[in-house]
Design brief:
Layout (H helix, E strand, L loop, with lengths): L1 E5 L2 E3 L5 E8 L8 E6 L6 E6 L6 E3 L7 E6 L4 E6 L8 E6 L9 E5 L2
Parallel strand pairs: 2-10
Antiparallel strand pairs: 1-3, 3-8, 4-5, 4-9, 5-6, 7-8, 9-10
Amino acid sequence: VQFVESGGGLVQPGGSLRLSCAASGFTFSMFIMRWYRQAPGKEREWVAQISSTGEATDYADSVKGRFTISRDNAKNTLYLQMNSLKPEDTAVYYCRRTFGSWGQGTQVAVSS
């Protein structure tokens, strides 16, 4: 099982980024997928979840209305569209199933 996150970077407050997660080593279309993040000095936290078909999504209150999780099962890829970014969104972002291994993450920094 492998996850490769990409798309992070430095962005100004109010800006947008789109993260991608390429998954391999399992049947991607059969599993609920999640995005997590870990800010400096803080524990890793759940950010968003999407059902195996993509029909159902759920978000942490801190990102609701600003972030959108989606997936392309034909490409074994998970996405996170992040809009109206705030400095407190600065973190390393990870994708994962509801269990198991982690990828290396992608760094998001929101700063002016």
